[in-house]
Model the fold of this input.
Amino acid sequence: MELEVLKKSFIEKYGEGDIQVFFSPGRVNLIGEHTDYNGGYVFPCALSFGTYILARKTKIDEVRFASTNLELEVSIPVSKLSEKQPNGAWVNYCLGVMKEFAAKGVKFSGMDILVSGNIPNGAGLSSSASLELVTAVMCNEYYNVGLDNLEMAWMGKAAENNFVGVNCGILDQFAVAMGKKDNAMALKCDTMEFEHVPVKLGDYKIVISNTNKRRGLADSKYNERVEECGKAVKDICTVKQIKLLGDIDLNEFESLKNSIKNETVLRRARHVISENQRVVDAIPALKRGDLKAFGELMNASHDSLRDDYEVTGIELDTLVEESRKVSGVIGSRMTGAGFGGCTVSLVHKDSVESFKTEVSEKYTAKIGLIPDFYVAEVGDGAKQIE
Ligand code: GLA
Done:
């Protein structure tokens, strides 16, 4: 992303003056899907691409929002910043965060804001959390709130839960807030204990493949899965008190699972608990450089998301299936919420080009969509740039 070009666009739109620049990355989750809101482990890393905000304070009592790559420009009176925009899709992620800052006592002044991002939207790479966190970093700076990145991650989650209406966990906001170059983050989502783990892949690359099937989180079955996990907890509580599915391991699950009466709910719980175990195994595998073991866990993760959690769909399944056939691929799975979006694969560096060609050809022949590929670079978390 060319900052000078963005600054020019800002000046063309809003006129000359002091501009500040903020950035938040996207993220890819290596393993640990739909475990976060169940108090389990996740293992994401931040990406080198993401969302920029160029901004400045003004003397008019309005906040003007524009974007270089998203439709819609709006000007909102400062007094109305806490109201949801009816057709304001992307702006609502910013407003949700601003509302959280207002709740902390921030009195907003007028601002000019230009957003520019290069995360494909709705692809499971956290374009929403990225927009939330870049907004948070900006507000934190302009109004001297003094929050750290973890506190801002929670505000982003609150905005998404309460304002946008998706009952997501902390995975995305944490990953984009707390990312560190060349490191993944092993996070336990109930205690929030975490550590940075160097992503040492030797001759392998993290390749993200986009199905280009769009996934709308709010209108997808995401909230339904959250509810199903709640039902599983309720059933298990008839025999053992637990707060979240992450409280029990696979052995305990075996002895408790008869308490779950509904077969679908049982499979949802089995995914969460087995996925949690896979992350627990994947973290030391990456640390000791056992990429083969890591790849097998990725494959098992996808299969469980497909069969037990049922959040994949034909596009993701086809992409994964074709990816695994390419020589030099040691693991492939969907990443993010599912229902479309992206996969993540570990691919030998010499096979990346043939991977793109072969997978693309087979996927398009079967699905009729053209996939996109990104070789991931692991970057830093949200911050002010200038
Ligand atoms: C979305 C949500 C996250 C997480 C993932 C699935 O990205 O925002 O909180 O639940 O799906 O792992």
Notes: The chain has a mean pLDDT of 96.
